[in-house]
Each structure stands twice: as C-alpha cells, then as structure tokens.
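Hey, quick one: can you model this chain's 3D structure?
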Amino acid sequence: MLVYNARGFRAGAGDVAKAVADTAPDLALITECGSRRHLRKFARGMDMEYSAGSLFPFARRVRNAILARPPWRVVTHKVHAFERSERFYPRGALVAQVGRAGYRLSALCVHLGLSSGERDRHAKELGDLTRGLTQPLVIGGDFNEGTEGRAVSWIGERYWDVWIRAGTDTGETFPSRDPTARIDYLFVSEEVRIESAAVVRSRGVEDASDHLPLVADLDLDA
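Sure thing. Here's the predicted structure for all 222 residues.
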C-alpha cells in the first residue's frame, strides 16, 4: 500500500508516477491529487484505476483519491468534507470499500487541517466515520502533525500505527529534500497484519513532491 501527498502533481503526473511506480502497490491513498486529468495520467502511469470525488479545476473540493490495481477495485466511495474546514482549502476523507475475490476492506484517504484545533475536530469526525465499520480498515494520508500531536495520538489509541509496528527508521516524510517530520501516516485495524513499512527514497522522488511516500506491506489473511 502507498500513502502519498502528490502536491497536485505539480512536478508532472507522468514524472511522479515514474518516481513511485517501482513500489507497485495494490492500493494507493493519494492526497492533493489535483485535477481529474492529472490524476488520470498518474493512474495510467501506475497501471491502476482511480476513484475520487468531483475534481473540477479551480473548484474548492476535497482532493483525495484512492487507486486500486486489478484484481483489486474500489467497490463504493464517497467524499466526507470535514466540518469547519478551511474555506479556501477544504479538508476531508475519501471513504471507500475496496475488494477482490474473497476480500473486502474499508479504506479512508485523509487530509487533516493546518491548525491543531482543526485536526482535533477532524480526528473525532474520523472516529464517527469508522464507527460501525465491520471490515478490516486502513486509514492513511497527510495528518499535518508530528507523532506527539493530539489528533495523531487520538487515532493511534484506536488503530495500529503501521510505522511504529514495522518501520525501520524514524520515518520522516516532510520536507522531501531534507525530511525532519513524520506527518504522513497509515493506521490499520487489528484484523490487518503488518509485514513491513518504509519511506520511499528512490531516484527522482525528492523532486516529485514536497512529501516522501510511505509504503507498507499488509496481510489480510491474519
């Protein structure tokens, strides 16, 4: 699985795809996914299919996307805009059911706000969104705060932080050229077994976005 803030594909959707294609994820949770045209080009470069909400250019929309590599597919999806989010840069979660033969997974692609008060509210809304979901669950995205932040801590008390369970170093993802902060996360429910987690530092990835991608190997047979 890939978790990535693509910065609207400002570096070029094709070049961004080349920078991360070797990770070959079955699922990708993408924040700041830009326009539908750019997202479509990125998905093509990744050999994946994408799902997102409305992505009209210049419209103030939640710009999160979930990509799936066949035979995985996004069965259903909906956009949840966080309440009292930034007017000019709305934040939210793309909530999807993802599946293949014999498997179903709930996936949330998340982008939290810039202020601590916003993020606290957003974390509570995530709790409401996940309440009652019975399938294995993954929550990933740009949380805009470090590991001591209240929103991250709140989510971490309820779901496994993949990096804490299986990461191999300190896991900083921002800024990409000289990362000093871990602000991109992947959390999973207890039904998901975590095999490994890594920050991608391959050639070209530092220029592809101001965030580094997070990748994880997960097992749903647990």
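One thing worth noting: The chain has a mean pLDDT of 92.
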